[in-house]
Design a protein that fits this description.
It contains nine helices and 18 strands. By secondary structure, the chain is α+β, with helices and mostly antiparallel strands. The strands form five sheets. It has a six-stranded mixed β-sheet with strand order 7-2-1-11-18-17, with helices on both faces. A hairpin with a 4-residue loop joins strand 17 and strand 18. The longest helix is centred in the last third of the chain and has 18 residues.
């Protein structure tokens, strides 16, 4: 249970790493405050909601899981977390119908996803934790009163005993530079993989049993697409009669080559690739693309990292994320869990600070 004397800790980032770390620290008695630059939580576990207009002028709602489409559990620890979350109704097992040219390799772990959207898991982890969204923290300062966080050269909050940076390494480097130059240098050199994502609403095949629409997930063996997901066929997602909602992720190589290409050019190319995968030219009701400049990290990117997190107990500064813990949702969770354990282990050495008058 949190008390007024509990040390305050600021967490920058409300994706899987930040949300997990915040949940664990709040449960251990820390007075946690989370900041995120986006309008909502989830980071790359993202769902875009929108309305599109048909030829008759009627509007239709749509949602697309255009970040991480799903995830699996490999370690025993994360499998335990997933099982608990599933038991609490936060996660649903997804057994997709695979495209004829794709397959799930023997022994592949179950696929999981939150419902009704991808950020739902992070929202649950952050339930009851003070959260400030739409707030881009661009500087950290430390003095005798503890840490303060700034946005646009203005102090947003202060009096923190510790700060956790849980954002992509290229963005984290700027916050770490003045306090942990070695961490910042490592973050600057950390390779992040980009990804373009196509979101589209098409007509549904009239004879799905004889058409390529009879599947929910494809892993194309060639071409610009890495994943193709029938998004509205996923558990907990709404379907609309006669329509199909698709999310198609470009490969890393294709995304890197076209990273700075105009969005319209990327959209046209990915629509053509999706039509080829579907085996027909669909009627396009709506389409758009999103560029993830920092979509993922290489699977073995943390092989040379001695720990899955960063923590300096002397200053009360930490960092976590999939770039340290390993690629994907599981890596972000593992990094956050390790950092929370390290902070809790040294918690008695961190002195609480008075809350600012405006808090």
């Amino acid at each position: 249970m949190k008390t007024s004397a509990a040390p305050r800790i600021a967490i920058i980032g409300a994706g899987m790493a930040g949300a997990s770390c915040a949940h664990l620290l709040a449960s251990a008695g820390w007075a946690v405050q989370v900041f995120d630059k986006s309008r909502g939580v989830g980071g790359r576990m993202s769902t875009r909601r929108l309305d599109w207009m048909d030829a008759g002028g009627a509007t239709h709602p749509a949602s697309f899981d255009h970040g991480a489409p799903c995830f699996s559990a490999h370690s025993a620890d994360f499998a335990g977390f997933v099982a608990q979350a599933a038991g609490d109704g936060l996660l649903t097992r997804w057994t997709p119908r695979m495209a004829p040219s794709s397959y799930l390799p023997l022994g592949t772990p179950d696929l999981w996803l939150p419902t009704p959207d991808m950020p739902a898991l992070c929202r649950s982890l952050l339930a009851g934790v003070p959260l400030r969204t739409g707030c881009a923290i661009d500087a950290l300062r430390r003095d005798e009163n503890g840490w303060r966080v700034e946005s646009g050269s203005t102090t947003v909050d202060q009096g923190f005993a510790a700060v956790v940076v849980a954002i992509p390494p290229a963005q984290a480097a700027a916050l770490l530079q003045d306090h942990q130059a070695a961490w910042a240098q490592q973050a600057q050199t950390q390779k992040m993989l980009p990804g373009w994502a196509l979101m589209a609403v098409t007509d549904e095949a009239t004879t799905p049993s004889a058409d390529a629409h009879a599947w929910d997930l494809a892993w194309p063996s060639s071409g610009p697409l890495a994943w193709v997901i029938r998004d509205d066929a996923k558990p907990g997602r709404k379907q609309q009669p006669g329509l199909a909602h698709w999310v198609a992720h470009a490969t890393v190589d294709w995304s890197q080559t076209h990273l700075e290409a105009p969005a319209a050019e990327v959209e046209a190319a990915l629509k053509q690739a999706l039509a080829q995968q579907l085996g027909r030219q669909p009627h396009w009701h709506y389409s758009t693309v999103h560029r993830w400049r920092y979509a993922s990290v290489p699977r073995a990117s943390n092989a040379s990292t001695p720990t899955s997190h960063r923590w300096d107990a002397a200053s009360g500064l930490g960092a976590c994320g999939d770039a340290l813990g390993g690629a994907g949702v599981e890596g972000a969770w593992a990094s956050a869990r390790a950092l929370a354990a390290a902070i809790n282990a040294s918690g008695k050495t961190l002195q609480p600070h008075d809350r600012p008058a405006h808090a």
